[in-house]
Amino acid sequence: MLPSSLKLSRVATATVARTARLGLTSIKLSSSSPYRLIHDGIIKSLNANPVALQMIDYALSLAKSQKSDESQGQAMLVLEQCLSSQSSENQDVVTHNSKGMVLLAMSSLLSARGSYDDAMEKLQNIQDLIHSHLDVRVAAMEALVGLNLEMGNDDTSSVLADKCLELLGKVELKNSDEGSEVASARAKAIKGLAELVQGNLESAEPFFQGFLDNKGCIGNAALSYGEFLHATRNFSLAKDFYQKVIQEVANKKDFTDVRALAACNMASEEVLLAATCALGQLEVHMGNFGNAEETLTSALNRAEQLFGSRHPKVGVVLTCLALMFQHKSKQEHSSSLLIQEGLYRRAIELLKAPPLDLEVNRTMRSGMDIIALARGGYAETLCIQENRKGEGEKMKRWAEAAWRNRSLSLSEALKISDSSNRMPVVDARICRAL
């Protein structure tokens, strides 16, 4: 019987040869890959099959560089072959880590094309790999919570976040050396984010205690903490954390080991996009409209580069940009109705908003926060135009019926008020208004 590593090498060779015939081998491994935390530095730091990691690197780079259905299909085929080549008989650390890494990569590919149920199935399978590295399982749980939040499954997200904390606690109790400070911060932060989404500021606060001086507060954990600070109006400190996240991810500082492993909407490029978008919103809330426009435009360019120009997450950033122009117009008593309308119309199109004539019901959950925000903002621009007031009122009624946030009304989310105890923040990772 051939050693598994040799068989895997032959699979990789055959796959590369086949894709070469399709003209797909001119792949440059990009440092800007949305999945780079699945493979950057992991070969040296994770006890896994190196050939499997090379195949993961190849597959994800292929999907990223081509941005087509065909390249994504080819990438998924590579990963499926990689997974099937792992021995089902071996129950050791190397095998479980390798399988876990492949499943993380598969879930990222699936989520990028909107196949959330399939992506979550891959992430759930990782929890059965009991010998896999703690950070592999934490990354899977974090991504699972993130996808459920994006889909509007808030109760499920909260339960999963609790399970992530339980997982960490059991491992630390069994072997304190395995429980890394980063994994602990990430587990607490994802629970804090789940509470933030549901409007529970007081419930979220304990999960962020000690984060200011916590060395493990990087990446997703630091971004979620920044959003908590932002929502509670600690603007100065929130800005520091947003900038910290942007610098760390952009420069890959502190993101070169397995502890920073992430997938799906929690992967590094999504974190960088969300931090940039949040910083732009913060500049709006601080009245720095020049900085806000520059930062949100940077986020828009990043979203288009990452997902393509027609992806819903581009619509999320466009919504934030439209709101910025709307706030600026009110503050400076200027007019930018044409700009606002153009941005809102484009955002609503990309967000795939249901027709206005379709009655809102509670089964509509995914993306409804941002759709309601975009339509609510658009309605305001229409209502101040006498000849379009009827159209605006109809859109306003639809947006208010679609709004899901438990702690803020839609009208509160659309205005900047010094009297409010809570400031609305759009999280571009999960496409939700916090």
TrEMBL record:
It comes from the Eukaryota. One of its GO terms (biological process) is protein localization involved in auxin polar transport. One of its GO terms (cellular component) is mitochondrion. This is MalT-like TPR region domain-containing protein.
